Amino acid sequence: MKDAVDLTVVPPVEEIAGRFQALQEQVAKAAINAGRKPTDVAIELAVKYQAPERVMAALAAGGTLMGHNIIQQLEATETALQEANAPAHRTHVIGHVQKNKAKKAVQYAQCIETLDSIKLAKRINMLQQARRDSGEAHGPFDVMLQVNSSGAESQYGIEPAAVSELASQVLELPNLRIVGLMTIGAHTEDPAGIAHSFQIVRTLRDSLIAAGIASATELSMGMTHDMDIAIAEGSTIIRVGTAVFGPREIT
Ligand SMILES: *Cc1c(COP(=O)(O)O)cnc(C)c1O
Question: Which of 8, 101, 159, 222 has minimal Cβ neighbours within 10 Å of its Cβ?
């Protein structure tokens, strides 16, 4: 399917539904090749820098989950989608969250995949407590810990060796629920190197569950160029932008 879709041109909005369907087929194929069920892998639309009508087209085609990197875009897009009566969907934050943006993140998203410090965890815990007190929210806020699985200096996320300690600190916070781990695959052409970075995170997820954190089931890993590898390594959520929306001028 990769060959059928030209990843170098930006498709017009009318083609987004077809691109999304092609992606669903590719994901199903990769899952079956890995001995998994197609329904075990969710597609998260990475919608950074996409106009709301393009996001809307992907939701109309069956998308139910989207990921935002930039909190300002999260707020603007969610507001526009609400005004346009968009289909029901869930929204995650997949970009680094600065402390002063945490409030909007918690207000407009249902999960922050990029938790990488106890400081940010405490802030989200406090914000969610306020939302529970006011009746705006009823349960804990979902988070994933972002793991720097490639060792690249340029990547956000905590070291693999720090996952267990941050997880146990987060467990102390009553308004947070750890739902899994997120990572960006190693930036290399070598499939074995990419697979290795995903294996590290899968092993960490398995050890969180073994340690009694039963809610930590998700593995958010895989993007347009490495989703087949991620699915083979157990990804439960792939975050895909380019395959559906085409290349971005800004990245
Ligand atoms: C942009 C982005 C993606 C999607 O990348 P594509 O290569 O366009 O599929 C996934 N995850 C994160 C964190 C991103 O910033």
Answer: 8
Q: Determine, yes or no, domain membership for 2.
A: no
Res. 1: pLDDT tops 50:
no
d(CA 187, CA 226): 10
Whether the predicted model's global pTM rises above the 0.70 cut: yes
What is the whole-number distance in angstroms between the Cα of residue 106 and the centre of ligand 1?
21
Cβ-based neighbour number of residue 16 at 10 Å: 25
Probe residue for ligand 1, chosen from 183, 239, 240 as the CB with the greatest number of ligand atoms within 8 Å = 239
Ligand 1 site, residue 70, Cβ cutoff 6 A: no
Beta carbons within 10 angstroms of residue 230's beta carbon: 29
In terms of residue numbers, what domain contains 240?
A: 13-245
Q: H or E stretch including 12?
A: none
Total of domains in the chain: 1
| Ligand 1 atom having least distance to the Cα of 225 | 7
For residue 224 and ligand 1, the question of a CB distance below 6 A is answered with yes
Residue 162 · residue 149 · CB < 8 Å:
no
Element (H, E) at 114: strand 111-115
**Nearest atom, ligand 1, residue 227 CA:** 9
